[in-house]
Amino acid sequence: MIFRPSGGMLYHWRAWRSRSRWQPFVNALSAWLGEWRTGEELVLIGPSAGYTLPVDFLKRFAKITAYDLDPLAPTFFRRHHRGLAVEFHRQDVFWREARLSLEPLKELLSRHPQAAFLFSNVLGQLLLEGTAEESEWLRFLTDLRRTLGSRDWASYHDVFTYEGGEVIDHLLSGEWKQGLKTGDFEWKLTPRSLHKIQGVRSR
Ligand SMILES: C[S@@+](CC[C@H](N)C(=O)[O-])C[C@H]1O[C@@H](n2cnc3c(N)ncnc32)[C@H](O)[C@@H]1O
């Protein structure tokens, strides 16, 4: 599908119009990701076209593989990050038969045994694509950490969105992230919409 709640055409159009407004967030993320020590292989989950992914960070890696639902993501990624080799796969990484599932992620972890994993502003979007009870979601987050085990991984994701007087809680501010290194950012998505983003890193 070209139009979807967590990405797709509307997101690409917004990104194209918003480059200068988004740049302070990209700069802050660049400094924070720069502190993350990893090997030479990276798996990106939900990168879209990598509009918020700092190019200096991506250039550190000898091999990058990306997984995203969006059929437009590879084309726009190559346009946005010209000259960067990324192997793209169109895949749903979190939902199976309309239920949250960690099976696809387990398969990716065994397919890429040496890679660091970066969840690229996707965890806060998952409940836009499907429905789960709050208790199921919180269990999913705990199980996500257990599944990642000792792997190098990081995520940056929406925690709260402020839009036109409304506050959206993305249900990511709880206990699940205990013991991880964190960073806090602001992303001015549109003139009316401010996203409080949190980064978490395994080290
Ligand atoms: C907000 S966008 C990511 C922004 C992006 N990191 C950037 O730098 O511009 C969220 C992305 O996650 C992808 N996504 C959402 N749910 C997904 C799922 N279940 N599996 C794989 N990708 C998913 C969407 O297609 C979308 O491209």
Keywords:
two-stranded antiparallel sheet, 12 strands, binds S-adenosylmethionine, alpha/beta, 8-stranded mixed β-sheet
Brief sketch in words of this structure:
The chain is an alpha/beta fold and 203 residues long. It contains 7 helices and 12 strands. S-adenosylmethionine binds next to strand 4 and helix 6.
Q: Please tell me the overall pLDDT.
A: 95
CATH fold type:
Rossmann fold
Indicate the structural class: alpha/beta
SSE series: EEHHEHEHEEEHEHHEEEE
Shape label: globular
- Estimated radius of gyration: 16 Å
Number of structural domains: 1
In percent, how much strand structure appears in the residues?
25-35%
Distance between the termini: 36 Å
The number of distinct β-strands equals 12
Task: Give your account of this protein's structure.
This protein has 203 residues and is an alpha/beta fold. It has a single domain, classed as Rossmann fold. It is built from seven helices and twelve strands. The strands form three sheets. Strands 3, 4, 5, 8, 9, 10, 11 and 12 form an eight-stranded mixed beta sheet that branches. Strands 1-2 form a two-stranded antiparallel ribbon. Helix 4 links the parallel strand 4 and strand 5 (87-90). The radius of gyration is 16 Å and the shape is globular. The mean pLDDT is 95. Bound molecules: S-adenosylmethionine. S-adenosylmethionine binds next to strand 4 and helix 6.
